[in-house]
TrEMBL record:
InterPro entries on file: AB_hydrolase_fold, CarbesteraseB, Carboxylesterase_B_AS, Type-B_Carboxylest/Lipase
Xref: PANTHER family: CARBOXYLESTERASE
Annotated organism of origin: Cohnella ginsengisoli
Carboxylesterase type B domain: residues covered: 3-463
Enzyme superclass (EC): hydrolase
Protein name (database record): Carboxylic ester hydrolase
Length: 494
């Protein structure tokens, strides 16, 4: 099957009852002089390009055999029932992985698993990760690199524009694009909602285990970048910052990995309020009339980081060190909450509950309330179902994508197939109609329609609707999870 994009023709193939077009490049390779720069739209090609195999994955530390990892990673996949000119809703899926790992070529999150047998199209996108996508370098390399800390976000934005311009050729409707992401993908969805240039490129949003907690101010972004620069020997009499531009990709990745020994890797990278792409703090932008109101489905897993309790601090000094690695200047406040929890339970449970609240639950509920109060129709959920493992981070994903037990070791069992149908039906109802309600659920009002910060759906067996548990929401805690003060050159540049 051949589809014509504005860059050229692509040949796809059949996959599980759908047409699949894989590894379609949407930008020029972000290498050489384009490293740390906004993505450049791809120049047209002649002839028909093969799109039957996944493209390269972004560079990252952990690698699976059988895949190519490269700095040249800006490609996307499209799955469609038919490239027939119909206007179907389009799910634009952004993978997770802490902004430092993950890809669009994980077979467990392929299009047919989610939208198979549905009148919908799915697009999954690769974007630059880690230092290649989120290293804020304006203070080190000058104004030419002012957007470097948002390259990953800009990649996602360019891919959205590609969908706007090309998805009709694949049987999709550019006016019905549903942003969907989990973990770092959910945080990316929230960041795009707070990005002026993304307005009008999507009509609905699904935020799983996300929020704007990883968006950082420029001082924090510069201080975090300095950790990677220091690991690479840049500054303080070492290499000049310009060495970054000619450095091998593997060397740059090694510096990123070394920096992650000082700051939790999940908190080391993320979008930046650079005044260019993200023009102001997301909470201010989303509360303004400039943000376009869209329906939003948002939530998290009940025990997101309970398993982290296995690494509970051994003593007071360890507690302060671990919390500083995750929260920076916010650690003092979180430490007080930790002491309160320790008075109620053991260290393992206290630490897991603390991280669940301040890394995920608080961020989800804070964003939900902000959106509900400012023109968005918002449905909240919490994933509580305990299959063969607790409802921790990402535990809903095998159910959402219907991954069979023999393919996955993350808790999905054949006797849980009804829960897989339930969560997929809920997500697809929202994607197709803008309302997640369906006959398999009890009545579930949106937060906006209740006149207060209302109710949420607890996805369990059976599902139930309950008043929102605001005990999991600490309004005193800032939306930006990690905050650092700039030092050295970054303190008076940028």
């Amino acid at each position: 099957m051949i589809a014509a994009t504005k860059s050229g023709a692509v040949r796809g193939g059949a996959e599980d009852g759908m047409l699949a077009f894989k590894g379609i490049p949407y930008a020029e390779p972000p290498t050489g002089s384009l490293r740390f720069k906004p993505p450049v739209p791809l120049a047209p090609w002649e002839g028909v390009r093969d799109a039957t195999a996944y493209g390269s994955r972004a560079l990252q530390e952990r690698r699976e055999p059988g895949y190519v990892y490269s700095e040249d990673c800006l490609n996307l996949n499209v799955w469609t029932p038919a490239a027939d000119g119909k206007k179907r809703p389009v799910i634009f899926f952004i993978h997770g992985g802490g902004h430092f790992e993950g890809s669009n070529s994980d077979a467990k999150s392929s299009g047919p698993r989610l939208v198979g047998r549905q009148e919908a199209v799915m697009v999954s996108v690769n974007y630059r990760l880690g230092a290649f996508g989120y290293l804020h370098l304006a203070h080190a390399l000058g104004a030419e690199y002012a957007a470097s800390g948002n390259c990953g976000l800009l990649d996602q934005l360019l891919a959205l524009r590609w969908v706007r311009d090309n998805i009709a050729a694949f049987g999709g409707d550019p006016d019905q694009v549903v942003l969907m992401g989990q973990s770092a993908g959910g945080k990316s969805v929230a960041a795009l909602m707070a990005t002026p240039a993304a307005q009008g490129l999507f009509s609905r949003a699904i935020v799983q285990s996300g929020g704007v907690q990883c968006v950082r101010d420029r001082a924090t972004a510069a201080a975090l970048a300095d950790l990677t620069l220091g690991a690479l020997g840049i500054g303080d009499g070492g290499l000049r910052a310009e060495a970054l531009l000619g450095m091998s990709a593997e060397t740059l990745l090694a510096g990123q990995i070394e920096a992650s020994r000082r700051i939790s890797p999940a908190h080391l990278f993320g979008p930046v309020i650079d005044g260019l792409t993200m023009v102001e703090a997301p909470e201010r932008y989303l509360a303004s009339s400039r943000a376009r109101g869209v329906p939003v489905l948002i939530g998290y897993a009940r025990d997101e980081l309970a398993s982290e309790g296995d690494d509970a601090p051994a003593d007071e000094a360890d507690a302060r060190a671990q919390l500083t690695s995750r929260f920076g200047a916010n650690a003092a406040y979180v430490h007080e909450r930790y002491l309160e929890l320790l008075a109620l339970t053991d260290a393992r449970r206290a630490y897991g509950a603390l991280l669940t609240q301040y890394v995920y639950a608080n961020a989800s509920l804070a964003l939900a309330q902000l959106l509900a109060e400012n023109g968005h129709q918002v449905w909240c959920y919490r994933w509580d179902f305990q299959g063969s493992r607790p409802p921790g981070h990402s535990s809903e994903m095998p159910y959402l994508f219907g991954v069979a037990a023999e393919e996955d070791a993350e808790g999905y069992l054949p006797e849980h197939a009804h829960m897989a149908r339930l969560v997929r039906d809920t997500w697809m109802a929202f994607a197709l109609t803008g309302d997640p309600g369906h006959p398999g659920l009890p009545s579930w009002p949106s937060c906006s329609s209740t006149g207060e910060f209302g109710y949420w759906l607890v996805l369990d067996d059976p599902p139930r609707v309950e008043p929102l548990n605001l005990q999991a929401y600490d309004k005193r805690f800032p939306m930006q999870v990690i905050r650092l003060e700039a030092s050295g050159a970054s303190a008076h540049a940028d």
